[in-house]
Amino acid sequence: MLVLKVLALGTRRGPFEEARKLYEDLSPPPPPKQDAPPPPPGQREAGAGRPTKRDRRKMDAFRSDD
């Protein structure tokens, strides 16, 4: 939640440093973040997924020997 107290109104659109002097931030500090364990590395079981080029060549060679 964002809570601001306006101290003064600006007369023109100016740089950040100048605008920061026009308000006071009264927001409560954010709660501490809990570190989640990292996800396991992206590995899959052997033979799962698409065949490699080498695997496709072996399959084609096997099929053509019939």
Account of the protein in words:
There is one protein chain. Helix content is 26%, strand content 9%. It has helices at residues 16-20, 53-64, and strands at residues 4-6, 23-25. It has a two-stranded antiparallel sheet. The longest helix has 12 residues, at 53-64. It starts with a strand and ends with a helix. The model has no long low-confidence stretch (mean pLDDT 85).
List the helices and strands and how they pair.
Blueprint: E1 4-6, H1 16-20, E2 23-25, H2 53-64
Provide the helix percentage. Answer: 25-40%
Largest sheet geometry = 2 strands, antiparallel
Residue share in β-strands: 5-15%
- Could you say which overall geometry the principal axes of the C-alpha atoms support? elongated
Counting helices, strands and paired strands, the structural category is alpha+beta
Helix count equals 2
- Mean pLDDT, to the nearest integer, reads 85
Runs in which pLDDT lies below 50 for 5 or more consecutive residues are none
Q: Tell me the radius of gyration.
A: 31 Å
How do the strands of the widest beta sheet line up side by side? Answer: 1-2
Please count the beta strands (DSSP E, at least 2 residues each).
2
Q: Order of SSEs, N→C?
A: EHEH
What is the distance, rounded to the nearest whole angstrom, between the alpha carbons of the first and last residues? 71 Å
